[in-house]
Specification:
Elements (H helix, E strand, L loop, with lengths): L2 H13 L16 E6 L15 E6 L3 H10 L5 E7 L3 H11 L4 E3 L2 H5 L6 E4 L6 H10 L3 E5 L9 H11 L3 E4 L6 H11 L6 E9 L22 H5 L9 H5 L10 H18 L6 E7 L12 E8 L8 E8 L7 E8 L3 E4 L3 E6 L8 H4 L4 H14 L4 H5 L2 E6 L7 H15 L7 H20 L3 E4 L4 E2 L1
Parallel strand pairs: 1-15, 2-3, 2-5, 3-4, 5-6, 6-7, 8-11
Antiparallel strand pairs: 8-12, 9-10, 9-16, 10-11, 12-13, 13-14, 14-15, 16-17
Helix pairs in contact: 5-6, 7-10, 10-15
């Protein structure tokens, strides 16, 4: 549906006023403020042992454990194997999921097992491409943590491997399948905010853990950590536990704040407005506080340009990260349009619409005589620039997920496993994943080169 048609339908509903609120809960009377519930209906699932999806975990660190816990909430899924380069995490896997699971420090042993249908890849970023391609070629469906790749050039190999093998590959920006994203997309397509003019995203943190200073276990040593394998294609360096347990802090293994946090925002943004992404980025920032040996910034600001397409106007996006935010931390994702704004979260969304003032007030009229002011007011009144309908469509509505909502992380895995069972469609395939990762990684390219970077969002290549 074209944007102008959607907008007219939204305004037509809005002009019905409060009497229509029950039938069409997204509409407002003048100045209306309300809260409504989002809803998700899951198909009842029941599977025999022979019908279950057997899952393998590659990378049993923080995110790997959170991913697996979410995955196992879905009926008919069983973890049968786990892989990690630190033996303590293999012990943790057995502690969490039973002594009968197979554990290994070599992911290839896991891929060689015939009893595994799908794998989660939750390794450091520089291993994503290699393991995902190997897993797809081994006949496994893949759930790959974001960002899909460490370098945008690696993305096409994953896309090709997925297409040639026919196996599914879901990229793990877990909020993608959430109720909040779903509602935001519906509202945007109905014209609720008019034409988009800006995206404002920020993530503030105020803790060592939030800044990736993760604890290093006391038993970490050259025997318990396979450091040489961890390095992979990265430059060879002597054993250093900080590089292994705090790998996000190093360009050799991670992607900085852009790959960890920007990519979530790009996934949501591109999904909601049905976009391929930006065509230009300019970044700044620096290492302002966490001088612990890292070589990535802890404060980052990047401005992006989105070109006009069939689904959105040309607009600008501002991405900001601060790992030493004295306010205590917080975050936000706000779509701002010509007629309203949406604050989007995984479990809630708030839509605000205001009346655009078109008639001059006392500020600009003060320099005219009383007689001239009356004439100017009469001229504006005759033009009817602020019709009653513009007031009827203003107000604020917040949609919230119910208390028993299983969460966006569950929904993303539910989508993945249902697509495996039914040969269905996943929400975030490798092409979508590369567009999200590629846009995020432009921030790094710009920051280190100290110049604006141009990008073709259709071909997913630098210009």
């Amino acid at each position: 549906m074209k944007k102008d048609t959607s907008r007219r339908l939204f305004l037509k509903k809005a002009s019905l006023g409060s009497a229509a609120l029950t039938a069409a809960p997204m509409i407002f009377a003048s100045g209306y403020k309300q809260k409504l519930l989002l809803n998700r209906i899951y198909e009842p699932l029941s599977f025999s042992v022979n019908d279950q999806i057997n899952l393998g975990l590659i990378g049993t660190g923080i995110q790997g454990i959170f991913d697996t816990k979410a995955a196992l909430m879905v009926d008919g899924v069983k973890l049968v194997a786990a892989c990690d380069l630190y033996t303590g995490r293999l012990d943790r896997a057995k502690e969490l999921w039973g002594d009968d699971i197979f554990v290994t420090r070599d992911y290839r042993e896991l891929l060689n097992r015939n009893d595994i249908d799908a794998v989660i890849v939750a390794t450091p970023d520089h291993w994503h491409k290699k393991i995902v391609v190997d897993a797809l070629k081994a006949g496994k469906h893949v759930y790959c943590e974001k960002p899909m790749v460490q370098k945008w050039e690696e993305g096409q190999e994953i896309i090709s491997a997925q297409k040639s093998t026919g196996k599914l590959c879901q990229i793990g920006s877990q909020g993608m399948s959430s109720l909040g994203n779903e509602k935001a997309k519906q509202l945007y397509e109905e014209g609720a905010i008019g034409d988009i003019v800006m995206l404002d995203f920020y993530n503030d943190r105020y803790s060592a853990e939030g800044a990736w200073q993760y604890p290093i276990p006391p038993d970490a040593n050259k025997d318990t950590v396979d450091f040489d394998t961890f390095l992979g294609s990265a430059p060879k360096v002597p054993y250093e536990p900080k590089r292994f347990f705090r790998w996000r802090n190093y360009r050799d293994y991670g992607t900085g704040v852009a790959g960890d946090l920007f990519v979530h925002a790009f996934s949501t943004l591109n999904y909601v407005i049905n976009s391929h992404g930006p065509n230009r980025a300019q970044a700044t920032g620096g290492l302002r506080y966490w001088n612990d040996g890292r070589d990535v910034p802890d404060v980052s600001i990047t401005l992006y340009d989105y070109p006009k397409t069939d689904t959105h106007a040309a607009f600008n996006a501002a991405f900001r990260i601060n790992f030493i935010a004295g306010s205590g931390g917080g975050g936000g994702f706000k779509l701002v349009g010509t007629e309203g704004e949406m604050e989007v979260g995984q479990e809630s969304i708030t839509l605000k619409r205001s009346k655009l003032g078109m008639v001059p007030g006392g500020y600009s009229m003060i320099s005219f005589t009383e007689a001239t002011q009356k004439k100017i007011s009469a001229e504006y009144a005759a033009q009817n620039l602020e019709p009653r309908a513009s007031s009827l469509s203003t107000g604020e509505t917040t949609w919230e997920a119910p208390r028993d909502y299983k969460g966006g992380h569950y929904d993303h895995f539910y989508n993945f496993f249902q697509a495996i069972r039914e040969n269905g469609k996943i929400v975030e395939d490798p092409t979508f994943g590369l567009r999200a990762a590629g846009a995020a990684l432009l921030a790094n390219e710009s920051y280190y080169k100290k110049q604006p970077i141009n990008w073709n969002p259709s071909t997913m290549k630098l210009v």
